[in-house]
């Protein structure tokens, strides 16, 4: 444990340029991964491909009709629907259709097993097709459980992203009240935000979509990892060592063991979900555990690097005052 903590601290303090170069490289890869990350919820792909439910769904999807019925109502009721129906039936995602009624004009489209991202594109295509065939004043209304799954899944992901922004704002304000320094507050957010962005960048590079399961990673990691950053900076803030390097080393060896042990306990606890069969649970468990380990690395290595480069002095109580408080001479304390 001591060698690990000494190595991380020395790497961050003695080789700041090397650490920053590594962070820059990882950040560039993260940006590339984030550009490939898309919100997409596909219920069929969430399950093992050899499961009975998936095999049955694929069979119906390929040889019979689509497994996802989508009801489309067009108003005002059109007179000639032949062109619309023929074009809609030729779309790749449509496996069949059935006209329910002519007034109001309701048609049920049987959609293949596709994700929410493709489904949203399909809805846009059908809406544009209806306006092209029946005029710009045409309105298209979609309904059915498939439409509900698509819209609610994307809405849930959006809500989770917004909740992360709200949690980040509240945590920033609370840390700012404690540290009473804008620079120190921004410094405390770096390890936690880096770990979250790295994980989502890896997901984008690996081709893993942002779904209802993976979108929760950010809030969970932020809520857990920020505790370690607060413990680290709070101890450093009150450390009596006169030299900043010595104070960082002392802080790492005092609070570092607790941070390492608790992080590994959390990582292993979340990692249990990797043994499951439901893909959102697997991805959530895996990337949450990896994000916790990345946040620990940032707390022990990146914070010393930033402190050295910015020359930011976090300690607000003079070191002489600490040494006096720890002195056995009570007369000096009374004089103070």
Q: What do these coordinates show?
A:
The protein has 336 residues and is an alpha+beta fold. It has helices spanning 2-14, 16-35, 52-63, 82-89, 116-134, 145-179, 182-206, 217-237, 244-271, 279-310, 319-325, 330-335; strands spanning 68-75, 94-102, 105-111, 139-143. It has a four-stranded antiparallel β-sheet with strand order 2-3-1-4. α6 packs parallel to α8, α8 packs antiparallel against α9 (244-271) and α8 packs parallel to α10. Mean pLDDT is 83; it is low at 318-336.
Rg: 28 Å
Q: What's the helix count?
A: 12
Largest sheet: 4 strands, antiparallel
- The level of helicity is 55-70%
* Shape annotation: elongated
**Category from helices, strands and their pairing:** alpha+beta
Number of strands: 4
Strand order of the largest sheet: 2-3-1-4
The average pLDDT score comes to 83
Question: Helix and strand string, N-terminal first?
Answer: HHHEHEEHEHHHHHHH
Beta-strand content estimate: 5-15%
Pick out the low-confidence regions: 318-336
Question: What keywords describe this structure?
Answer:
single chain, 336 residues, alpha+beta, four-stranded antiparallel β-sheet
Topology of helices and strands:
Layout: H1 2-14, H2 16-35, H3 52-63, E1 68-75, H4 82-89, E2 94-102, E3 105-111, H5 116-134, E4 139-143, H6 145-179, H7 182-206, H8 217-237, H9 244-271, H10 279-310, H11 319-325, H12 330-335
Antiparallel strand pairs: 1-3, 1-4, 2-3
Helix pairs in contact: 1-9, 1-10, 2-7, 2-10, 4-5, 5-6, 6-7, 6-8, 7-8, 7-10, 8-9, 8-10, 9-10
